[in-house]
Amino acid sequence: MMDVPQKTGLADQLLIGIDQNSVPPCPAILQRVVNESQKPEPDLRQLATIVSGDVGIAASLLKTVNSPFYGLPGKAHTVQQAISLLGIRPTVNAVASLALQQVLPPPPKLERFWDGSMKIARLSGWLAQKLGPAIKTSADLAYTFALFRDAGIPLMLNRYPDYYTTLEEANNCPERLFTQIEEDRHATSHALVGYLLAQSWWLSPNTCTAVRYHHDISMMSSHTWVLSKEAGELIALAQLAEHLLQHLTGQSQTREWCKMGTDILARLQLTDCAVQDLLEEARSLSLIDS
């Protein structure tokens, strides 16, 4: 199993095309939450105080915790109750996800970028719950990864005015890797930029690796399975979630499932019939309704 790639060699070459100063630094609130969570005995009251310092994130955390997605046994009425119900690591993931949407507003011409990302994240978390115990990845981690997976796209759009053309070509190409098209045109890719963002925001090593390689067919091949189980599951869950979303809405069609679908099903131990059943259940549960 591979570790998180180091910023050397090819990665250094690809970084020539991107100004690293354009990668948003880790927000202060997330840094403080991470620091507290890494103590031998994290203080829930202190964590609650930190999170409550950002009214927007505190309110969103309560709303998220009390949503059907988490299916928790009781309702949280305070931030401290929310953290107690969630647990430390899921709280860190939740704060990271909420902060990301604050830092990266939707780019022009892609106003519904976060709407689509949120729906994929919601479906990813549901799939992680639904496919257990064969799937070991937690729902909150699957949700967080799905949000960060394409976070490099708004940053690429800010850096390259012609990146919309690149997106259109990459989404419609049935053969070449999505990221190869990006690298040929811009000397970097949204996957690498997103990886650097995930690293600087203290996401888990497997999450960072999954962001870096989520378009890499060779990494997901059922013949090699180079990635760790968790990193592979994160990529597979989000890709299946995107596939389901495309069928549920008829929008944002891409060629990624044609390239990776067989290996995704092998990774998740699913059949085409099982995917159809998941599609129908997701439709009946209205999982993508806002």
Describe this structure in words.
The protein is mostly helical. Helix content is 64%, strand content 0%. The chain contains 17 helices and no strands. The chain has helices at residues 10-14, 28-37, 44-52, 55-65, 79-86, 88-103, 113-130, 139-148, 152-159, 163-172, 178-186, 190-200, 205-213, 217-220, 229-249, 256-268, 272-285. Helix 6 (88-103) runs parallel beside helix 8 (139-148). The longest helix has 21 residues, at 229-249. The protein starts with 9 loop residues before the first helix and ends in a 5-residue tail after the last helix.
Number of helices: 17
Please summarize the sheet with the most strands: none
Q: What sort of overall outline do the alpha carbons produce when their principal axes are compared?
A: globular
Number of strands: 0
- Which class do the helix and strand fractions yield? mainly alpha
Q: How far is the N terminus from the C terminus?
A: 38 Å
Order of helices and strands: HHHHHHHHHHHHHHHHH
Point out poorly predicted stretches: 3-11
Write down the Rg.
Answer: 18 Å
The fraction of residues assigned to DSSP E strands is under 5%
The pLDDT mean sits at 88
The percent range for helix content is 55-70%
